[in-house]
Amino acid sequence: LDQKLAQEFAMWVRNIHLAMFAFLVAFVGAYTKDSAAIAAKGFFQGYQPITCLVVVLEASGGIIVALVIKYTDNILKNFATAISIVTATTLSIIFTGFVIHPLFVLGTVAVLGAITIYQRNPPNKDNTIPCACSSRTLKMSDGDDGK
User: Fold this and answer.
1) Which of 16, 63, 83, 100 would suit a FRET pair with 10, their CA atoms being 20 to 30 Å apart?
2) Three-class SS of residue 139?
3) pLDDT band at 81 (very low <50, low <70, confident <90, very high)
């Protein structure tokens, strides 16, 4: 396999691994809480078409995030996250009468602040950290030392 095909394959495999882990956690949670109802009426009891739409949108969102990170960078994904927070809040206020609580404001400010700080100070691309004892830098191991 050439390098590009291997990277694309790795992205899909990573997404499948994450989905399997999420499925396992959701499965355990559902059966721990609602095992009797699931046994009696089935797992999809009470699902409406809108519920299925939300599931599809959430799954699509995860794939879109992976593609955004792959083809752009993490900073653009963080800006998209900030925009989605503001948009979702605005739409919730307009359509559902959402009342903004002080803890919501605190959480939103913390997330937006973290995104801003991350954007201003991106991580080292060369994986080095400055050494305070001299003008040298220390190379961090990337975990692939051939062992």
Assistant:
1) 83
2) strand
3) confident
